[in-house]
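Protein modeling request. Please complete all fields; requests missing the sequence field cannot be processed.
Requester role: graduate student
Desired output: 3D structure, token encoding
Chains: 1
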Amino acid sequence: MSQNVSSVPAIRLDGVTKDFGSVHAVKGIDLRIHPGEVVAFLGPNGAGKTTTIDMILGLSHPTAGSAEVLGLKPRQAVARGLVSAVMQTGGLLKDLTVRETVAYTASLFADTRPVDDVLESAGITHIADRRVGKCSGGEQQRLRFAMALLPDPALLLLDEPTTGMDVEGRRTFWSTIRKDSEKGRTVLFATHYLEEADQYADRIVLIANGTIVADGSGSEIKALASGRTVRATVEDDPRRIADELRTLPGVDEVELRGDSVRVHAKDSDAVARYLLNQTTARDLEIEAKGIEEAFLSLTGDSEHPHEHEEMSR
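Delivered output (313 residues):
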């Protein structure tokens, strides 16, 4: 990016809290995001994601703690064109064409990238003359993306960026994001497509009940959700085998369907040894938890968020 901001964190939150009367929406967040990182910001509804993003954008102020964006107060960074945001709704005039919308937005800034450049980056050059009202939901999202790219921001915040996009649209979008991050642009995005976060983010930050409960790569997040699932076919007295499996240490759950047994356990090796050495089990499979199961495991216990292990960066 054109701005020389690489010597400071793109986002720095220190002890940030946010209260709305008696409601404690954010309960103390410490976060550093470095230039060029692509970070997924995930959490269930009501976890504090939107409130935190609002503070990063300077739309609201912390009740306690401090927030800095590129070494500046959030509103200063936004005013200088260092920050852009792509939100899900609003901000589009249906009677303008795609090109007219981008050109009009460009007129609001003192210095922007050429309109044709951002249309190409967002993958919407071919619909430049289409009226916004005739565009699909995914095309309108890509238009918002093009508008956000105009000031060549050092930090880009995305809220559900690929909603409504088809598979090819998503692939093109994330290809653009990765190329920009290699040049130093920082991206923070919220999404309900958990596999998308796992595939495209350098780092995942999980928030629940107003606090960060996990912070790491996709593989690190999945590793925090302890346990694996063992599946096998057991034809000899499956009920007896299921009962014996329940007595093994670390076994959380045993499910029997016909002659198929499914075991969730912290020590999957012990389950596998028992099945292979003590029974005639066949077709044995061991499966680690996916990103969705990790998400539910790490954010589901909102009463005790601090009991979850948090990784340092």
